[in-house]
Every structure is written in structure tokens, then in C-alpha cells.
Amino acid sequence: VVDMQNAFLSDEGSMNKGGMDITELKKTVLPVRRLIDGCRSADVPIIFTRYVLRADYKNAGLRSVRRARFKEINSLVMGTWDSELDPRMDQRLEDYVLDKTRYSSFYNTSLEDILRGLDVDTLIICGVTTEICVESTIRDAYFRDFKIIVPKDAVAAMDIDCHKGTLATIEYGFGSVMTSAKLINDLLGIAARL
Prior knowledge:
43% of the residues lie in helices and 13% in strands. The protein has ten helices and seven strands. The strands form three sheets. It has a three-stranded parallel β-sheet with strand order 3-5-7. A two-stranded parallel ribbon has the order 1-2. A two-stranded parallel sheet has the order 4-6. The radius of gyration is 16 Å and the shape is globular.
């Protein structure tokens, strides 16, 4: 579950305050939450990522240049409400929460170690934003030989054309794209047979 944080999903969050239109991002909350619930029912582990940065942005890399105005409003600063997971995600003690400082959830995190420890071969990747953090994570997962499933209604971008283009690219070269409802049905069907 990629970056389902207050920064991206709340009108009080830094993306909206920084002038970005989060309308499409907010539409993912219910599908992502239903997917999380379905995964829990099927005993699929939940891994949340959070994009978090130091207050001085010393670990922000090029983001401090490309998104300089966001430093001024403390966007995604570690330990702030802005960087926390949206409470509607219902994060629980048994879930994994990984903090990252770059778009990919694999970059300088223990994600691959966790997945290998869980003996995972397939990832369901949802969250925001489709063409940035979600896609970066998908590409890095694919390069590590994980199979990819993307629930198309549980990912979003601020720009609908970027979203659609990225989903087409994912389906063409990296994995399967389907609705979250179909995915949940498939998961529950598999779990019932076990």
C-alpha cells in the first residue's frame, strides 16, 4: 500500500496546500480500504509505505530542488501529521510500515528482505501516485522477479492521462491490471480452497 498518507489524501495535507489537485487521489481511499480488508480475510500480509523526509530536507535528494516549495510547508516531514498514514487505512500492529525517502518502495528500505522472508512471489500494489511512486515500486519489483497485480481503481494520479498511460504501460510490460473487486473475489476464492 504505497503512500496512503495524510499529505496526499487530506484537504489539510501538504499536497493540497501546495497547490496540487488531490481530487483523484481521494477516490482511492475506499477501494484501497476494501482491498486491505479483503487481503486480511485471505491472510495476505499488508505492507504500508510512507514517504517521509527530515525537516531540513537533507535526505530529500532532487525533491528538494524539483519541489522546493514543499520544504517551506513541511511536506512529508517525519513525525508530523502530514507524513502519517491516513487513519482510514486502519493500520494494525501486525502490518508492516516502511519509511522511504525516494519514489520506489525498494530504494534503501528493507522491503525486499521482508518479502523474501515471507516467501512472497506476487505483489498486489496499490496507492498513490500511479505514475510516480507506484510505478517506481512496480518497476523495481519486476526487476527483482516479483509478479505484479495492480487494482486499477485502487491507484490514482493527479493527472488522469498520466494514470491511464501508466496503467497501459504496466499491463504491457510489467504485470496484470484488474479491478479491486475482481482481485478480492479471486483472493477470497483461493483462501476458501486452502
